[in-house]
Structures are given as C-alpha cells and as structure tokens.
Write a structure and sequence with these properties.
about 140 residues; mainly beta; TolA/TonB C-terminal domain; five-stranded mixed β-sheet; TonB_C; TonB family protein
C-alpha cells in the first residue's frame, strides 16, 4: 500500500501586533494623491511563509486606488520566522497599511525595539484640518 503525503498545514493565525514586532524589512508604499485633511488605510490578509517571506495577500478593505500600492509594498516585506514547537511555521495575519495625509505611508504597527510592537511614526494632520479627534473612555 502506498503512503499518502500528509496534508499541508493551514497557516497559524497570529495577531497583527505580534507579527509587526517580527518585521525585519519593509518597503514604503507609493501614496496616490489624496484630498487634504484625509488619511487612508488598506487592510490586508497576509500569509507569511516559514522563512518569513510573504506568500499571499488578500485585500480585506480600503479604497481601490490605494490597494495596489499596498499589495506591491507588503509583498516585499520580510519577517523574522514565527516559531511553534521550535519549528518555523507559516502564519496568517492582518496588515494595516496607513496612508497619512502628511508623510510617508507604512505599517500602522512597527517593532518597538524591545520585542513588541507600537504604532508607527505618523505626523498629525495639519492644524488647518481642525482639532484632533478626542477619544473618551466609556463611563
């Protein structure tokens, strides 16, 4: 009797913050022209291979004119391989590509240099765009 090849394992789902902490290299997306005082974001579902390279990308959301530049950039990103049981493992994660009105586009989360992740360094909207949004905690 012949032996059947084992079924390939589905990628392990890992949070975007954990994978952002594992980013080794990123490519800055090209930013299409944007109206003043508006930021944009593209949300991607990304599968990362065992070696840390991007295997596949699926758009989850974001304006059409920003999607291709996000895909082209993220396709070139590399990650420190994710380990499970001391073996490199393919993972599926979400990537948020932020297109600020001021400054270069990039990952909404980046490594913090301490093994974790933090929000990217994006400039606030210019003062002529009005006061920044205030987020209040629910009582």
């Amino acid at each position: 009797m012949g032996q059947e090849a084992p079924e390939p394992r589905k990628p392990l789902k890992v949070s975007m913050q954990i994978m952002a902490a594992r980013l080794l290299t990123t490519v800055t997306p090209q930013s299409p022209a944007m109206p003043k005082c508006f930021d944009r974001m593209v949300t991607l579902d990304v599968v990362v291979r065992e070696d840390g390279t991007v295997a596949s990308i699926k758009v989850i959301g974001g304006l059409e004119e920003f999607r291709e530049s996000a895909i082209e950039a993220v396709r070139q990103w590399t990650y420190k391989p994710y380990m499970e049981d001391e073996k490199p493992t393919a993972v599926e994660t979400t990537v948020l590509v932020f297109y600020p009105n001021v400054g270069p586009a990039g990952s909404l989360f980046v490594p913090d240099g301490k093994g974790g992740s933090k929000g990217g360094k994006f400039l606030p909207l210019p003062s002529e765009c009005g006061p920044p949004i205030q987020i209040k905690k629910a009582q």
